[in-house]
Amino acid sequence: MLTVEEALQLVLRHATPRSAVRVPLSPACLGLVLAEDVASDLDMPPYTKSLVDGYAVRAADLAGGAGRLLVVDEIPAGRSPTLPLEAGQTARIMTGAELPAGADAVVMLERSEPLPDQRVYLRDERFKPGQNVLPRGREMRAGEVVLRAGTVLRPQELGLLATVGVKAPLVHQRPAAAILSTGDEVVEPGEQPNRGQIRNSNGTLLAAQAARAGAVTRYLGIARDRLDSLGPLVAEGLKNDVLVLSGGVSAGKLDLVPEVLKEQGVTPVFHKVAMKPGKPLFFGVKEDRLIFGLPGNPVSALVGFELFVRPAMARLLGHAATGPRIVAARMGVEFFYQTDRVTYHPAHLDFGEDGWVVTPIPWFGSPDLRAVSQANAFAVFHPDHPHYRAGERVSVLAPE
Ligand code: AMP
Ligand code: MG
User: pLDDT tens track of the chain, all 400 residues?
Assistant: First the structure.
């Protein structure tokens, strides 16, 4: 049986970044990935500017760390100075304003004392030529590439795009993900389940995970465990970049999902992963579309999504480095756990004096979504290792 790592490599091998589009610059661009290099259209700063409120000076006038100077101008941000500074002169200047010609340093306001007759006494023991000044073009030059294709857009990159005048960056498109629940016993959340029925947790759960992973989501409803119900909904789902199904992938007589997918041209890549929960996980491809058949129990679906679907989505979005977020932590308590497969056990991850500490949460297996709602991570436990000492190092799956 494939290990989680092997299965993930197979998934990523089939996931290629989506085509590029221009998206208006806004917070909606967060997490998208640039599809072209971006160059600045101007020098930044566009003029030599003051970094503080104070007095612009000629360094020679402050050679001994102090000087009495004549105030000849006042320069607010947004207005260009008109007068050059002559020897013995200074200009009051605001943060961000342009330095007058001749000036090459700024003394902070706190180091000044007004004198009569438009004069000011400046005293700065640590005075250095160039202090409190950002020269024109120091940050970037016009024509210089400031962001490379492949950069993930965070708030600071969005701010930088605004700085260089990009109104609509070229980015990889968000993947479209369809979510399809399956099962004769599954009813929608608004319904009162009869005996033997169960509410559809996964439709909402997986759509939320897909949205958090950066996809545009489409919820397709519940397919019954019949070919004539599954068929049309699967066909609809296959119009998207990613189709995520839940349920119907085990070995039962009514587990028709793999069969229906194959009938509709999906090539199976794998159908089992050595993990718990979620062993009977189906992954297949049709052209460049990715199809995930997750097991029906909510925790299996959730873990399968975090381990495989989310990294795949990241790759479709254009992220170069992708994978589940695994961190190292120490066990907060002694713990006994017998398992025949690598197990992702709901746990709480906390940052303490000695770094990350992980504590397993009581859990009743793959249907028990409530335990996961009290968790913020999954401790990774291994077969043939039934006893964990407090303080022992373990891996932890830690989705944000
Ligand atoms: P299956 O993978 O179809 O064999 O389903 C495994 C278990 O998960 C069964 O107990 C189902 O009732 C349950 N299940 C299947 N689909 C859902 C769903 N959408 N929401 C909640 N539970 C489900
Ligand atoms: Mg089922």
Answer: 999 999 999 999 999 999 999 999 999 999 999 999 999 999 999 999 999 999 999 999 999 999 999 999 999 999 999 999 999 999 999 999 999 999 999 999 999 999 999 999 999 999 999 999 999 999 999 999 999 999 999 999 999 999 999 999 999 999 999 999 999 999 999 999 999 999 999 999 999 999 999 999 999 999 999 999 999 999 999 999 999 999 999 999 999 999 999 999 999 999 999 999 999 999 999 999 999 999 999 999 999 999 999 999 999 999 998 999 999 999 999 999 999 999 999 999 999 998 999 999 999 999 999 999 999 999 999 999 999 999 999 999 998 7
Contact 296, 304 (CB under 8 A): no
The residue whose CA is least distant from atom 6 of ligand 1 is 296
Q: Whose CA is nearest to atom 3 of ligand 1?
A: 247
Atom of ligand 1 nearest to the CA of 222: 19
Helix, strand or coil for residue 180?
strand
* Nearest alpha carbon, ligand 1 atom 11: 296
The answer to whether 233 and 180 have CB atoms below 8 angstroms apart is yes
Ligand 1 binding residues, C-beta < 6 A: 181, 183, 185-186, 198, 200-203, 246-248, 250, 295-298
Residue among 201, 297, 366 to mutate when testing ligand 1 (max atoms within 8 A of CB) = 297
Mapped onto helix, strand or coil, the DSSP state of residue 210 is helix
Please, which residues have CB within 8 angstroms of residue 381's CB and are 6 or more apart in sequence? 337, 339, 342, 343, 345, 388, 394
Best residue among 179, 180, 186 to mutate for probing ligand 1's pocket (most ligand atoms within 8 Å of CB) is: 186
Q: With CA atoms as reference, report the closest residue to 277 among 323, 222, 339, 330.
A: 339
